[in-house]
Amino acid sequence: MTTSLPKVIRVAVPLPLREAFDYLPPPGMDAAAVPIGARVTVRVGRQRLVGLVCEAGVASRVDAARLRPAQACLDEVPLVDAYTLALIRFAADYYHHPIGEVVMNALPGLLREGVGVDAAGIEVWRLAPAVDASHASVTRAARQRALLDYFTTLGADRAHGPEALAGFGDGWRAPLRQLMDKGLVLRERRPCLAASPGGDAWPTLNPAQAEAVAGIWPAEATPVFAAHLLEGVTGSGKTEVYLHLIERALAAGRQALVLVPEIGLTPQLLARFRSRFAVPIAALHSGLGDAERRCAWLTAAAGEAPIVIGTRSAVFTPLPRLGLIVVDEEHDGSFKQQENLRYHARDLAIWRARAQGACVVLGSATPSLETLHHARAGRYGHHRLRRRAGMAKPPALRLLDIRHKRLDAGLSGPMLAAVGERIKAGEQVLLFLNRRGYAPVLICQGCGWLARCPRCDVPMTYHAQARRLRCHHCEYETPLPAACPECKQVDPVPLGQGTERLESILAARFPEVGILRIDRDTTRRRGALAERLEAVHSGDYPLLIGTQMLTKGHHFPSVTLVGVIDADQGLYSVDYRAHERLAQLLVQVAGRAGREEQPGEVLIQTCQPEHPLLITLLRDGYPAAAEVILGERKATGMPPYSHLALLRAEAPGESVPDDFLNAVAGALSPLAGGEVDLLGPVPAPMPRRAGRYRAQLLLRAATRAPLHRLLREGLPRIDALPEARRVRWSLDVDPVDLY
DNA sequence: AGCACGCCGACT
DNA sequence: GTCGGCGTGCTC
Q: Where does Zn(2+) 1 bind (predicted)?
């Protein structure tokens, strides 16, 4: 008598477990009949979870006695296609992350929770027929009135989804409900995704653009895997190249995926796509409601949305007919997820394109060094757009030596004079300072005491308007101390510059001039950033002050002068990527200026005017600066000339992370085989944060294979260390910063 | 991650 | 005498 091994389904469950679990098929089903890529509900311990079927009809790896049947199969057909499942598997493998948690990243919330896929559509609202235009029943409620005016202006023929109404601020649902109760507005359901109007004219490409398009996707071609770098200075018309490439992909019957940075997915960009292509376009971004997200995702997965535009996580969207992936601003840090599964969407996009036989285009004015390195080695096609479309001159960059100069709130005489001139000429000025608050330090002049965060050991930032000290690394804040707690001398003084101080100094200096400050403090409220960006174009604010926030994507056509208050932070930093980031930042911030007939000027204050990086960047531009930085990386053996993985650990006890990482180093070094360097453990750049001590261990190897072999063999040993349960630890493969 | 089991301090 | 602290181990 033979007992055949039970055939099971292998299910990725949303738990931090390295392996998928085996289950007997749901009642009444044959294991081999359960669709791979379908969701099932299973019991794990005593909890009920939704998991994803990775394999079906396979022999179990565990004792038959331990097997439980899955409860139910939620999808008749695979929710996740084979390509996407392969991507999920690869990501779990490459980032050494539990597969169930990778699945969590790949699925929209509702589907993750087991909601059905029957496309119920999304809510839309329209004006009821024959509504009295005087709105007699809405007299005093301003928000209802604003909504009703909007509905009336656009007429009863048009229905409006949550996306359109979100422009009315956070609480638009309450006044809308009032309007529905009064019978003025009707609710209905719209099937998932309607086609965009399209219809806009297609401008003729300039020669460089045409050459790039032809080089990346020749007319009438069917796609095969290829990666391309599209290096185009700000304003050179990269988006137009993308649009033409997408047109070719659609003509070949393929889908296009466009990945953009978090702040890059603006209504303007979407409008541009929608006015070009008369097809359904699925937009996946953080502002979507759960139902909308599920809807857009399902439409894409069904192959019914030929174009999908989204941020980082959109790289996981199933696209059965994928032919083209565009990664716009590929150097942008938001493509790297910095928690849980620490994946890089650009890198996964390239893997995915290869696996699915698609073409991938990485676009940037300031490509990452990794991408440049691949392009130089001939692994990626390299296409350049050197000229700004329709504009004569790129902005002129100039260094201002501020050594031994009298500074007024960090502003040198020449900077102030230049600002004054531009304002007098009726032009707009943007001052960039990557530090919010009034001053980064508050110090006692009597004894040198300075206010530190008790949980992070770093100086607290003084916020003048709030009259409080805030830690920028945790939630801690206190009222402004009237006197030094050590020596009792009154009025500790602010030291250094923040955007708030810059604003107050400039307000005193240019009392008649409108100043607009854009940083996290002035844009905390939902919609406030959009309002302020709108205000930039109103002409009421000749002076703009901003942090990092302002350097990305937004176009300020009437800005003719950009002032960089402090370029030196990026020169002194210990992080190996600081120079790359500084070069990208300076070029990107310069790109905000002089987009029209007026040529722009960029003034950069520095104490290191002879620094080779700055000299090269100003004289020869970003590509030359990138060469310099690549040389530094080669000399120090850092990426792209090596491969890194970073183990981070934190715990409330001071020596606990270090003890853990020492144990890790002990467990890993016999496996390292001379091919992987174990650097550390060392304290993290911020050794204490939010009351927890932090340390890290860096793994470095010349090639990927031994590094990943070490991780594959070593992680189970780390899991087994007794020290491991006393710390919170995480692994970051290809870390982009060592914080 | 949950959730149980398990062995040591302050409470009805 | 119990309630509950969180260390340890398991979940197909």
A: 444, 447, 484, 487
Distance CA A563, CA A416 (A): 10
Helix/strand/coil for A89: helix
> A307 in helix, strand or coil?
strand
Most confident of A292-296, A379-383, A440-444: A379-383
Contact A35, A9 (CB under 8 A): no
pLDDT at A1: 45
- Mean pLDDT confidence for A241-269: 94
A401-410 pLDDT, tens per residue? 999 888 888 8
Please give the DSSP secondary-structure letter assigned to residue A453.
-
A700: Cα separation from own chain's centroid: 26
Residue A735 CA to nucleotide C11 C1', Å? 31
CA of A149 to C1' of B1 (A): 49
State the pLDDT confidence band at A392, using cuts at 50, 70 and 90.
low
A295: annotated binding-site residue? no
The total of other beta-carbon atoms located within 10 Å of residue A569's CB is 14
A154-179 mean pLDDT: 80
Ligand-binding annotation for A73, yes or no, is: no
Poorest-confidence range of A169-178, A582-591, A661-670, A700-709? A169-178
Fold match between domain A207-382 and domain A396-436+498-632? yes
We find that the CATH architecture of domain A7-112 is: 3-Layer(aba) Sandwich (3.40)
Cα–Cα distance between A184 and A165 in angstroms, integer?
Answer: 16
Beta-sheet strands, E only, within A402-536:
428-432, 441-443, 461-463, 468-470, 477-479, 493-495, 515-518
The CATH code belonging to domain A396-436+498-632 is 3.40.50.300
Whether residue A686 contacts residue A720, with contact meaning beta carbons closer than 8 Å, is answered with no
Among all strands, which nt has the closest C1' to A728 (CA)? Answer: B1
> Which nucleotide across the nucleic acid strands is nearest to A722, CA versus C1'?
C8
Q: With cut-offs at 50, 70 and 90, classify the pLDDT of residue A191.
A: low
Hey, which CATH number is domain A643-733, 3.20.20.70, 3.30.70.600, 3.40.50.2300, 1.10.455.10? 3.30.70.600
Position A2 scores a pLDDT of: 45
Residue A537: both structure tokens together? 């174009």
CA torsion, ordered A6, A7, A12, A15, to nearest 10 deg: -10
- pLDDT tier at A359 (50, 70, 90 boundaries)? very high
Task: Tell me the per-residue pLDDT of A299-308, one tens digit each, with 9 for 90 and over.
Answer: 999 888 999 9
